[in-house]
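Researcher: Go.
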Amino acid sequence: MKTKFFTILLTCFIATSVFSQVTINSYKYVIVPNKFDFLKAKDEYNLNSLTKFLFNRYGFEAVMEGSDYPKDLVLNRCLALESDVTKESGLFKTKLKIELKDCNDKVLYTSPLGESREKEYKTAFNLALRDAFKYLEATTYKYEPNENITSIRTTAQPGVKNEVSEEIQQLRKEIENLKNEKVAELAIVKKPIVKTQKVVVAQPKPVIDILGKVAEEKRTVIEGASNVLYAQEIENGFQLVDSSPKVIYRIKNTNLKNVFLVEGKNAMVYKKGDDWVIEYYSGSTLEQDPLNIKF
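Model: Structure:
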């Protein structure tokens, strides 16, 4: 009988050791959503901001959903726990609980209910959330890197700067191809035959002159780019007008945020830091000029 008891006890201990290898201590970050499902608006009653504050207070490194994530988190989303706060119904009490999931949506921690008897929503939610966090505080969280998690590498999410950079490079290649096609078309255009006493066919201008003309046209387009341009929304993009008002550019949306193609021009407009620039080729040289755009 004793042998059987110790065998069961040893089995339970081994199972507990295996499943406890990955705990909330194995995760470096906690991502806090901008909005909880039981609320009507983002960060209503400042509850999401309070959640982030309390996570940081109790030793976690919390980041708000959609903010600039640390570099290691961008490369490996599994370094972070996904947090959530849910509300349970109560007649005279406000009841909230905290939930933590891994990157595979597996629940690793659920707190007991935090409660408040206050009638005013903001106060009740605030007190109930703080009450629920007392249970999380008791876990004495401390980050302990786990090789099973740190070795995971995930693809950067849409909107990450590396992917944006690759998309911009692709757009540049497309613009360069369009420019080459335009130059090729101009190079084969011949002047009409001029009839005199003798039929003489005028010689086409050298390609180098045509290239020079194209560059001159581009410089004319860019002239005045430093003046204030006002963005007016049109279908699939905006038109940029000056104070006269005169339409200077029409820019079209792309799949990238703050990146536009210039209609009728081999150029693109995108945001570089806090400034807007227009990028185009002048001959074989890639040029960038600042734009002062007011949206």
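Model: Residues 161-294 form one domain.
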